[in-house]
């Protein structure tokens, strides 16, 4: 089980690192270059044809930045690391293509593997739900209980199931029980 | 009269461009800071009318800086703007409950955009 967790943690770290690189590196540079371009454009005299050319270049940079932003969101939910499960799930619900209803208590922070696993289960179910999805999370102290209710049986990907089992949790229909603390050994 | 502005970001290149851009648009005093500590010191020393704070300050959190600024400098109430490379909707969840007056995408940074968020600036 420890080996599985190490593999999970490594994969999660890689995605999180790529997301950070996309955002802090590429997107940041595109934005700054766009501002510099605008500064050069503003200094050119009215009627200078280069003004239109620079404006067109600026639009291209903004489109590239928007593309990187979408890619970075799909790569890893940065908000999960920054702010924990509740804000990340609210963000996920807003981006979902079907209505997602959240029933969340005030949540403490959990091990990154646990938070990413819960997020993944909800994301999988939201991605496959046809009409709606209800997400209920209960902090039972020693375990986290995630209850997914949707039209038909909630979709759980094989990887989602693997992740729950690697954490020592159980999955039954749309109900996942995941230990709140990870013990080694 | 133009308002005094402090920009806080961990990216030196952005700070440089932001300062040049805001000065070009007429601001006479644009300070910059890269960390929570230097931002607090600059606020203490320069009394900016508005502070722009990047959501992520390297290892530090911009939200934490906003809380500290609001607590230590009550005159900055409603005068702090969060900025980010990301779009506002990416941070909607985190903006709730911060004492910041609003949010501005870095690509939309301008004196006019700042004034739209804080209409009562000098």
UniProtKB/TrEMBL annotation, chain A:
Keywords assigned: Kinase, Transferase
Gene3D superfamilies for this protein: 6.10.250.2870
GO molecular function: kinase activity
Domain Signal transduction histidine kinase subgroup 3 dimerisation and phosphoacceptor span(s) in chain numbering: 16-72
Highest taxon in the source lineage: Bacteria
Cross-referenced InterPro entries: Sig_transdc_His_kin_sub3_dim/P (IPR011712)
Keyword Kinase: yes
Name of this chain's protein: Histidine kinase
The organism of origin for this protein: Paractinoplanes pyxinae
Organism placement in taxonomy: Bacteria, Bacillati, Actinomycetota, Actinomycetes, Micromonosporales
TrEMBL record, chain B:
Keyword Phosphoprotein listed: yes
PROSITE patterns documented for this protein: RESPONSE_REGULATORY
Modified residues (4-aspartylphosphate): 54
Phosphoprotein listed as a keyword: yes
Domain Response regulatory: 4-121
Keywords: Phosphoprotein
Domain of life: Bacteria
Alphabetized PANTHER family for the sequence: RESPONSE REGULATORY DOMAIN-CONTAINING PROTEIN, STRESS RESPONSE REGULATOR PROTEIN 1
Designated name of the protein: Response regulator transcription factor
Species, as recorded: Paractinoplanes pyxinae
């Amino acid at each position: 089980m420890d080996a599985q967790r190490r593999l999970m943690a490594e994969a999660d770290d890689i995605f999180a690192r790529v997301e950070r690189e996309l955002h802090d590196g590429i997107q940041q540079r595109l934005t700054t270059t766009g501002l510099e371009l605008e500064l050069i454009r503003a200094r050119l005299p009215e009627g200078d044809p280069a003004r239109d050319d620079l404006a067109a270049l600026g639009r291209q940079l903004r489109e590239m930045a928007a593309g990187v932003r979408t890619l970075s969101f799909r790569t890893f939910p940065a908000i999960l690391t920054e702010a924990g499960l509740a804000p990340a799930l609210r963000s996920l619900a807003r981006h979902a293509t079907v209505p997602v209803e959240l029933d969340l208590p005030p949540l403490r922070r959990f091990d990154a593997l646990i938070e990413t696993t819960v997020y993944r289960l909800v994301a999988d179910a939201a991605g496959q739900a046809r009409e709606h999805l209800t997400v209920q999370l209960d902090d039972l102290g020693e375990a986290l209980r995630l209850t997914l209710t949707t039209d038909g049986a909630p979709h759980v990907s094989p990887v989602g199931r693997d992740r729950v089992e690697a954490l020592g949790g159980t999955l039954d229909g749309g109900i996942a029980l995941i230990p709140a603390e990870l013990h080694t050994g | 009269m133009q308002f005094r502005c402090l920009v806080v970001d961990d990216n030196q290149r952005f700070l440089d461009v932001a300062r040049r851009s805001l000065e070009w648009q007429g601001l006479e005093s644009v300070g910059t800071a890269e960390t929570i500590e230097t931002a607090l010191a600059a606020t203490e020393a320069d009394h900016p009318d508005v502070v722009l704070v990047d959501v992520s300050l390297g290892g530090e959190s911009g939200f934490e800086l906003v809380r500290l600024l609001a607590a230590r400098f009550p005159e900055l109430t409603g005068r702090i703007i969060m900025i980010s490379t990301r779009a506002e909707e990416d941070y909607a969840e985190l903006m709730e409950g911060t004492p910041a007056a609003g949010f501005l995408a870095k690509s939309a940074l301008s004196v006019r955009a700042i004034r739209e968020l804080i209409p009562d600036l000098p």
